[in-house]
């Protein structure tokens, strides 16, 4: 089989040299045409019409390639090389890139939904989730704080991020939000709101363990003041996600609407906010805005390969 291989070199703590990726496919009897995302755009690489596209990188790289493939009928194979690898994990792919290739005979095609976020930014696809409140406020801080810091492996980096998150959570003040969840109006003071296509977002923050990326629905998680302590325990690895989720408000819906005030919001890993220069991907919002935003699911725009068995727990050693 001829395969298009898109690779983001240096995507995470456990990146794999290009030669090893190509050789691993060859060992399975396949020819992989290698393309570096540092040198070519997804659109350029995908001019090769191979039916199967393999992407070696983290969640950001997977999202970029999946957006290009949406609706094309071509199949996507994820080779996890990033730090969190949230998308791969929720497809049941918890092995590294080379081992995933060695097991590709056991993979099966599965539809993978995308979410659509409509707002002042236009229409954006998302594959993990969209969020408001604490998470988008601290993502830029976590990235800046980790810059230049050496970590033993991706588990150490994730544990570091989760520890900082737990510390900042102690003093974070909830904000008032009003949401329309299908036909139900929900209003309250929330520490965070996450509209999820898969169960996890950010630094392995598993808020909706029952979420399925192929059910045509979104899981909307709201954490109130009552959930602060259990969220801290989840971040510190003191409770399982299934137990923590019982203390959060989780609703499975097809459509969400809310009034956005311009404070930081994340669409997957992109941070959107309103600042002095208007709407953009910036870190420090300063100008209030009132804009109606809508979020819905686009069932099955991508066909992803995943293990035939049900998803399993994350790699041993994960927090």
Walk me through what this model shows.
The chain is α+β, with helices and mostly antiparallel strands and 319 residues long. It has two domains: 119 residues, Rossmann fold (3-Layer(aba) Sandwich); 184 residues, Tumour Suppressor Smad4 (Sandwich). It has nine helices and 19 strands. 41% of the residues are buried.
Please tag this protein with its features.
10-stranded mixed β-sheet; 9 helices; 7-stranded antiparallel β-sheet; Rossmann fold; 24% helix; Tumour Suppressor Smad4; 319 residues
Question: How many helices does DSSP assign?
Answer: 9
Largest sheet: 10 strands, mixed
Mean pLDDT across all amino acids: 89
Strand portion: 35-45%
In the CATH hierarchy, the third-tier topology of the largest domain is known as Tumour Suppressor Smad4
The CATH architecture of the largest domain is Sandwich
Question: What is the string of helix and strand elements?
Answer: EHEHEHEHHEEEHHEEEEEEHHEEEEEE
Judging from the principal axes of the Cα atoms, what is the shape?
globular
- The span between the termini is 38 Å
| CATH C-level class of the largest domain | Mainly Beta
The helicity comes to 10-25%
- Stretches where pLDDT falls below 50 for ≥5 residues? 276-280, 282-288, 310-319
* Count of discrete structural domains: 2
């Amino acid at each position: 089989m001829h395969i298009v291989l898109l690779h983001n070199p240096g995507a995470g703590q456990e990146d794999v040299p290009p030669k090893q990726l190509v050789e691993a496919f060859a060992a399975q009897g396949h020819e992989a045409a290698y393309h570096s995302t540092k040198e070519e755009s997804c659109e350029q690489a995908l001019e090769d019409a191979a039916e199967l596209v393999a992407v070696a990188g983290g969640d950001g790289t997977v999202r970029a390639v999946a957006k290009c493939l949406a609706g094309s009928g071509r199949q996507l194979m994820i080779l996890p090389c990033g730090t969190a690898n949230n998308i791969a994990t929720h497809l049941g792919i918890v092995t590294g890139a080379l081992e995933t290739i060695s097991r590709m005979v056991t993979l099966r095609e599965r539809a993978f939904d995308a979410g659509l976020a409509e707002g002042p930014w236009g229409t954006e696809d998302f594959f993990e989730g969209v969020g408001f409140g604490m998470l988008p406020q601290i993502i830029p801080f976590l990235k800046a704080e980790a810059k230049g810091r050496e970590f033993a492996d991706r588990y150490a980096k994730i544990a570091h991020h989760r520890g900082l998150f737990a510390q900042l959570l102690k003093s974070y003040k909830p904000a008032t939000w009003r949401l329309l969840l299908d036909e139900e109006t929900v209003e309250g003071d929330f520490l965070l709101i996450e509209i999820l296509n898969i169960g996890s977002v950010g630094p392995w923050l598993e808020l909706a363990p029952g979420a399925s990326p192929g059910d045509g629905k979104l899981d909307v998680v709201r954490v109130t003041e009552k959930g602060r302590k259990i969220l801290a325990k989840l971040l510190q690895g003191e409770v399982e996600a299934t137990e923590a989720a019982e203390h959060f408000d989780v609703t499975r819906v097809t459509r969400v609407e809310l009034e956005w005030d311009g404070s930081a919001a994340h669409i997957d890993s992109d941070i959107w906010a309103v600042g002095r220069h208007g709407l953009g991907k910036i870190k420090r919002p300063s100008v209030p805005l009132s804009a109606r935003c809508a979020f819905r699911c686009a069932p099955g725009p991508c066909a992803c390969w995943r293990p035939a068995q049900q998803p399993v727990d994350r790699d041993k050693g994960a927090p």
